[in-house]
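User: Could you check the structure of this?
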Amino acid sequence: MLSIIKTMQQTIVAFSIAVLLSGCGGTKVLKEPEPLEIGQPIIADSDERVAVVLDWVIVRDGPGTWAKNADWDEYLLRIQNVSERPVEIRSVTVLDSSLTSQHSVADRKRLVRATRETARRYEDEGVEVKAGTGATTLVAVGGISASVGMGAGAAAMYGSGAALGATAGALLLAPVLITNGIVRGVNNGKVNKEIGLRQSMLPRTIAAGEVAALNLFFPIAPSPASVEVAYADADGEYVLAIDTTAPLDGLHLPKDDR
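Assistant: Sure, the predicted structure tokens are below.
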């Protein structure tokens, strides 16, 4: 009996060390975000009431990313009211290559869940989705020449986190797993807080001549076909659809699946 207990303890210790060496994984806020310089916009479009510029899309491991292992996209847009009356921006929607709508969400869990659903949907069609793939192919295809400088958004200063240790003994495995779970939970909480700080709230009213900069989070949208801005003024409701097929072609898709 004692030999069995000793063997179990040795196994638990070995497994626990492997867990510790593998790290906590998951998503976490980086100490320093990846550098991002906004130059020529990716694309722009307009109608008689609003002008919309897509400055950049922050993806996993791409320029501007501030979180490790991000399973979402952050769209940086500017919207100018070129009319003589206020307009209300109601929503912004991204349509992926299958023309499935992705709606902006300011919640890490919902973003991750929706991204996984998208990946499964594409996998059912025999297409692999890989976060961040194709980010280097983002290109500017015209639009407004003068670019508004984009700040860092809502910046939050985070500490290094609590130092959590495991208690040695016959039940070593449980504290190790609990510790990893706590660290992961803390990291997820920080990420979720940052998303909430950065996300622009909609609806939003823009005065005549005003320019609004928006940070909007979406589940991953492979090779996005368009970005649709729904808005309204005193006369009615409208949708401006921006064709992103060319500049965002192949985003999140391996070359063989494009």
